[in-house]
């Protein structure tokens, strides 16, 4: 009934599930194929309606997810993150490899720098560099800044003085990238939270 590839995949997943691996099956066909050839002790999380999952994985901001993100109260332990939380805050949205913020944090010890970056791998690397450099005015968070900026930044004890957005999308000509990060909800959050005479730097 199933192709050789599907059978092999089913066997691999079956083995993985017995080795404490969390497996998420997406789509009706995948659920049917894998469950059909697994033994009853295999554990899977199954999502038969795949379209919403693909939208999420593609990075689209679905209204429901954005609303959840927006209202989710991020608990950032600011006192653990920065040595002096009364210092003004500079937020770089889509901080990428973090090099810009590293340079800024070295030159401006009197400010705190926060990078918001969706790519978790980049954030992990940046945080390792922060720890090895012993910087206490620089931090990175892995998040979709478009929907979480307000929730994260509104709990900062000091003032938000500067926000930068640099090269937000790698290929502006692709329809799916256009305005992906810079949306009304982000612009409104920045405008609401920025201190009087605060600045936005965008290229
Ligand atoms: C072209 S790179 C620019 C990186 C950096 N600002 C620079 O100028 O070198 C765009 C970055 O924005 C990140 N990004 C895109 N949308 C984002 C979002 N909604 N929230 C957080 N980061 C996002 C991407 O993961 C990528 O690292």
TrEMBL record:
Pfam families: Methyltransf_4 (PF02390). Keywords: ATP-binding, Kinase, Methyltransferase, Nucleotide-binding, S-adenosyl-L-methionine, Transferase, tRNA processing. It comes from the Eukaryota. GO terms for molecular function: ATP binding; phosphoglycerate kinase activity; tRNA (guanine(46)-N7)-methyltransferase activity. This is Phosphoglycerate kinase. InterPro entries: Phosphoglycerate_kinase_N (IPR015824), Phosphoglycerate_kinase_sf (IPR036043), SAM-dependent_MTases_sf (IPR029063), tRNA_(Gua-N-7)_MeTrfase_Trmb (IPR003358). Transmembrane segments: none annotated. It catalyses: guanosine(46) in tRNA + S-adenosyl-L-methionine = N(7)-methylguanosine(46) in tRNA + S-adenosyl-L-homocysteine. It comes from Aegilops tauschii subsp. strangulata. One of its GO terms (biological process) is glycolytic process. The keyword Zinc does not apply. Its cofactor is Mg(2+). Belongs to the phosphoglycerate kinase family. GO terms for cellular component: tRNA methyltransferase complex. The keyword S-adenosyl-L-methionine applies.
């Amino acid at each position: 009934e199933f192709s050789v590839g599907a059978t092999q995949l089913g066997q691999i997943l079956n083995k993985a599930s017995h080795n404490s691996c969390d497996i998420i099956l997406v789509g009706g066909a995948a659920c049917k194929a894998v469950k059909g050839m697994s033994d009853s002790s295999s554990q899977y999380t199954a999502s038969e309606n795949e379209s919403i999952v693909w939208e999420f994985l593609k990075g689209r901001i679905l209204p429901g997810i954005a609303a959840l993100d927006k209202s989710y109260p991020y608990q950032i332990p600011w006192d653990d993150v920065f040595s002096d939380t009364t210092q003004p805050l500079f937020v770089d949205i889509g901080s990428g490899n973090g090099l810009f913020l590293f340079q800024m944090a070295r030159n401006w010890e009197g400010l705190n720098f926060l990078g918001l970056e969706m790519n978790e791998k980049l954030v992990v690397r940046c945080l390792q560099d922060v720890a090895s450099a012993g910087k206490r005015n620089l931090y990175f968070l892995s998040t979709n800044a478009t929907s979480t900026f307000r929730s994260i930044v509104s709990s900062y004890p000091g003032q938000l003085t500067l926000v930068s957005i640099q090269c937000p999308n790698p290929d502006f000509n692709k329809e799916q990238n256009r305005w992906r990060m810079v949306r009304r909800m982000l612009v409104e959050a920045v405008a609401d939270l920025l201190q009087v005479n605060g600045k936005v730097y965008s290229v």
